[in-house]
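SEVERITY: medium
COMPONENT: batch folding queue
REPORTER: lab tech (J.R.)

DESCRIPTION
The queue accepted two submissions in a row. Attaching both inputs and their returned structure tokens so the on-call engineer can compare them side by side.

ATTACHMENT 1
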Amino acid sequence: MYCREISIYFECFVRLYTSKMPRKYTSFTNYFLLVVFATLSIIGIVHHPMWLDEVNCWLMVKSSHSLKELFQSNHYQGYLSLWEFLLYGLSRFTGNIFYVQVLNITISILAAYLFLRYAPFSLIIKICILFSYFFLFEYTLISRSYALTWLFLMVFCILFTRKKRNYPVIVFALIIIANTHLLSLVTSIPLFIITLCFMRKDMPNPRTIIGLGFLFIAGIAISLFNMMPPENATIFQTKESYFSFDHTFKALSFFVKGLYPIPDFTSFHFWNSNFIVVHIKWLSILLTVVILLIPCLIFHEKYFILLFFYIANWGIVLSLFALRITVGTRYMGYCFMILLVSLWLNTDERFSRKPFFAPKWLPAVINVTRFVFKPFLWSILSIQLLSGIYTYSVTLYTPFSEGKNAADFIKNNLPLHSKIIVFPTPSGPSISTYLNRELYYPQTGICGTFYPWTALPVIDTKELTRRIAGSLDGDSSNYKAIVFASNMDSLSSVENLIESKLDTGKYSIFKKVTMDSGMVKSENYVVYFLRKS
């Protein structure tokens, strides 16, 4: 009796998100959606001035004359992934950072094609996922390594759900996933465990299984070696207590931020914020409990998928907690990707059905699941779609970073070789990229382009002013620019010192401009233009 009810429920469950249109319309619809996605991506990158995390990788690889030098420069970032190697290859042909954006949307469009072509979901679900917050904005318009992860997760799902599995290619895809990001590495491990269990059934030769196992372990070892930053990297410099309520709450908000990425639209600088987490903490806690419970019901028959969902998600939460990187919304998108991979794999009937719950509880589980699954899935998809459309729309008329505008303004108002001073150091790379030249960073006392992600010295306003004045005196050019990030706590005192110390007989401030329309708070600027009197 229970088996019959489970079978009926499973058929309804599969139909919910695998129902498709007639075949003659499917291909046309997929290509139409792909063209729309590609068009929006191209329009989006044209309106997206790049920020620190995007440009810093590019500046590092551009300044590296060998792979060894690239490794040394990038080691402080915390990981050297496949993305950096792709950028290194690209930098040998062009110095224009626009092609980094072209590379990223090419990867994203390819992932979109594979998703539309092979994903076992209905049209409306595909639309909600394709134009979701993470896949339309966070992983497409912002050029980082996440589109690569999404692409190879698609490849894995396609290969794994085929009638005849090619295990060497599957393992190779998992190795690539493990080498795209630290959180991707965490995600790849439970997927390999599932793959290994099926290999034991499908491949009679144990030597092949052992060989593929060692190959994956070697891929993990390479990934770990490239992802171990030195002790003086910025990632280890935070003073926040591990077990403070704040830190724990931020780590556990991974689930809400990943599945319900509602930007805090009450704030102008809403990027990396979440309305629920900021304003309705009790709802955030409730949703976290719901998100953790409902997959138990959805995947209760297929324990492999159930284990993948929880091991991958909790592995990422623990990684974020341990490394204290609990701010970036881009990290939280892994929860969404893990859910989608779980739903995709759940359509493969070769997964053995072994109910997670005792037989006496199965009727209640089936009834509850039938009641909660649709609201759960559609609440996630609708929020993802609306957040994606909203954020994308805002980027069309609001600069993501003011770095490009500041660089253009400096170009139009100063001679070519004028000295440019930027404080603090992390606010400089986006300006350096679009100026295509070195800047002077008084915080470190050196000229350069990228921020090496080392711990920066703390200097007071008087020392800052002294270094700036010394730099100006040591330079022969008649015109200079001093750029400060406008989110600095001490901005007003620094400005007072600059205006009182520098606007004297030796120099005069002939223009002061504030650029504070950028979504990234740390990349809004106050720019001073000086000339020798």
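ATTACHMENT 2
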Amino acid sequence: MVVNKSTHQKKASLLDLTQEFYQQEAVLKEGGEQAGRERQKRLGRMTVRERLDALLDKGSSFFELGIWAGYKMYPEWGDLPAAGVVAGIGRIANRDCMVVANDATVKAGAFFPQSVKKVLRAQRIAYECRLPVIYLVDSSGVFLPLQSEIFPDEDDFGRIFRNNAVFSAAGIPQFAAIMGNCIAGGGYLPVLCDKLLMTKGSGLYLAGPALVKAAIGQVVDTEELGGAQMHAEISGTVDFYEPDDASCLARLRSLVEMIPQDDKHKIVEPHESISDPHTCYNLVGADNSKAYDVRDIIAGIIDKDSMNEYKALYGRTLVTAYAKINGMSVGIVANQRTNTTTGKGEVEIGGVLYSDSADKAARFIMDCNQLKIPLVFLQDVVGFMVGREAEQSGIIRSGAKLVNAVSNSIVPKITVVIGNSFGAGNYALCGKAYDPNFIVAWPNAKYAVMGAEQASNTLFTIQERAAARDGKEHDQKEGHEMRLKIKDRYEEQMDIRFGAARGWIDAIIPPHQTRETLTFFLQMVKRAPPTTRTFHTGVLQV
């Protein structure tokens, strides 16, 4: 799926950009080519989306994770919509569950590197939120041409099975339904689950007939080797033998209904927000160049009359506040995008972290940990302030303090990238490397070490200096072309779809649904058992 760059650049508003993303996600949800869908029908099997429709409660929502996974990452192998795996949180028999389902219309459900990363992320979220996990298996196994990137490392294919065993020991329910192929090492996933269902005509074996013949010279047909009936009657591996997908999914629903519930998982009562969540489209531009007061964004997210801003007159390039979202307490750390002034009358640039704002945020995060209040980060940051005055103010020390507080935080952390997410600002405000329970972004979000303009100018300057050291005259035309090429490459990599393809965020969300999404996430993190850890940061430079 190719995006017309010139068309993309002409988008006039954040609303236009959001609608473009809606349309592209609809294409990704279609899965593989028509031939793949026809093959499923020929074999008497449902497509992955049809299976989800039958499995999930009618009329309930499904929060899909990683829909952009693998986007434009494997051009030599063709499109890989959603990395060939659908993953998300949905309700089954009125119980929240994580569902991981192979899409056999995409490369026969084969696992690419990003398919594995996506499943591992879904497992991590399920573990942290104590969500039952449902695996709908229909996969030809590892994509062999890329086996070296899938097979051996600690965040590769084998980690999935290790997690299955850890989930079991932790008492988190896991159900697997084989409704197609389940070949080679992938066979361990369903067998490590609590309950295993399998449909007639499906196959479960460590090696297929061709490999068995090549390895030991034995000739055996598919059903005798690893068919559903054989596993139900002879090997005893399968718990429930089902005639087709429909009966298998109905059985799954009845089994999930056996999972006990408690009051902690009840849906919260809705409250009124301060302002209409749709006002965000009038505040924020598609190119992140507009200045805005982040309190106006927060007003569309939090409950009316619930905001208590912390140190409102100090460190003003960050807004820190206690608030509630549909009755649930949160601590908010948000970048202020308008320019502000200090108590001494000094101007501070919006979107930039200064020593005072970093100190304030570190102290606020410590207090939220003391009170066991979940943290919500709203990122629109271009980085920490640089220059003589910033260095003399102890910007590195203050930044390290903030990073330390975020790193050691024991309360749930949710990050929403509503604009830029550059450099160490990404780290300090709970980027992916700092273990947010959930991390999502708006369509206008940008991820990079620095902005494209700064990066291209920096590299251009380095080239100029290198030429001068070598006694060569720098070619201005060539340098200009190089700068434009670097800028174009940076802009492509800054696009949030680039990061989403690589799993740096869990989902790209419509801005007006931020309150609704945060409500859902806060309900999910409440499911985790109380932590036995205590909050401490170790040594801080003060």
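NOTES FROM REPORTER
The first strand starts at residue 62 and ends at 65.
No errors were logged for either attachment.
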